[in-house]
Amino acid sequence: MGHEIAGEVAEVGESVAGIAVGDRVAVEPLVTCRVCAYCLSGERQLCPQKQLLGAGQYQGGFAEYLEVPAYLLHKLPDDLSFEVGALVEPLAVCVHAYRLAEIQPAERVAVLGAGTIGLTAVLTALELGASEVYITARYPHQADLARSLGAAQVFTADEDGTAQLQTSAFGRPFDIVVETVGGEANTFAQALSLARPGGRVAILGLFTRPVKVHPLPLALSEVKVFGSLTYGSPGHLSDFALAAGIAARRAEQLARLITHRVPLQEIQQGFETALDKSSGAVKVTVAP
Ligand SMILES: [Zn+2]
User: Fold this and answer.
1) What pLDDT does 171 receive?
2) Residues, CB within 5 angstroms of ligand 1 (ion)
3) Phi and psi dihedrals of 215, rounded to 5?
4) What is the mean pLDDT of each run of 10 residues along the chain (288 residues)?
5) Residue 183: how many CB atoms within 10 A of its CB?
6) CB-side neighbour CA atoms (13 Å) of 250
7) What pTM, to 2 d.p., does this model score?
8) Phi-psi category of 129—alpha, beta or left, where left has phi over 0 and alpha has psi -120 to 50?
9) Quick check: 284 and 261 in contact, CB under 8 A?
């Protein structure tokens, strides 16, 4: 908790270069060893010593000040608000998944689930060249947001909606399917059934129980299924740096995800609002 962070640099350590007091930054919350084979190859999300800010020994963003290693900072443009800057984190999660999927121009994408990750996955796919994105959404306010972020078609996440999505995929299955629901949902098998032969399925949702899947269609269709965890540096630019660029270009659209704001003193109320989906909450921002 508190791992989506943006703010202003108040003080820098003696040996820090390239970052100055007053810089506006987003914080990549992944502290890693920086010397293991994973770190050196750009796959720092797999570092055995990785730690997330806000968990374990490292301070998170629910504070007026926090101390972080300088290598985690990404500068933000002057006109980008901190609350949108904090959304660079979920954007980077989506960028990572699409890079692992090796997304190609004009590909078609289906996203299952319209929470913060699902919604940012719509915008990120379009930004990375997808021709159209379909999505399932559980709540009307999520459906409205998905459309405003550019989703071509929105289906309800119930039986009717998923059947409709399945029907529309039958004639024209998707190049990439992004699963963001997890928990106890049945979206794993559903995701596999929506992908075209040779298509890719990214699992971002955190499932809390095993799921039953028939492997035969996978073998017959060469669908590639992979898990995607946080972000790293698969190319010249890190996922986080790429995401910071997207946030700057799409700031106005991203700001629509922020449905509630609470000061630090009312953080408990913020958690309650975020948990109560009937509140219309997508992203509850804490402003220390
Ligand atoms: Zn490492």
Assistant:
1) 86
2) 32-33, 36, 39, 47
3) -75, -15
4) 96 96 97 97 97 90 95 96 98 98 98 97 98 97 97 96 92 96 95 96 97 93 97 93 97 97 97 91 94
5) 11
6) 26
7) 0.96
8) left
9) yes
Q: Say how many C-beta atoms besides its own lie within 10 A of residue 231's C-beta.
A: 27
Tokens of 10: 């108040």
Confidence at residue 191, expressed as pLDDT on a 0 to 100 scale: 96
- What separation in Å is there between the alpha carbon of 33 and the centre of ligand 1? 4
- Of the candidates 106, 156, 154, the one whose C-alpha atom is nearest the C-alpha of residue 132 is 106
Cα(31) to centroid of ligand 1, in Å? 9
CB neighbourhood size of 263 (10 A): 11
What is the identity of the amino acid at 64? E
Give the Cα-Cα-Cα angle 104, 109, 110 (nearest 5 degrees): 160
Instruction: Give the closest residue to 152 by CA, choosing from 170, 131, 137, 171.
Output: 131
3-state secondary structure of 72: helix
Dihedral of CA 10/16/19/21: which sign?
positive
Comparing CA positions, the residue from 165, 147, 148 lying closest to residue 156 is 165
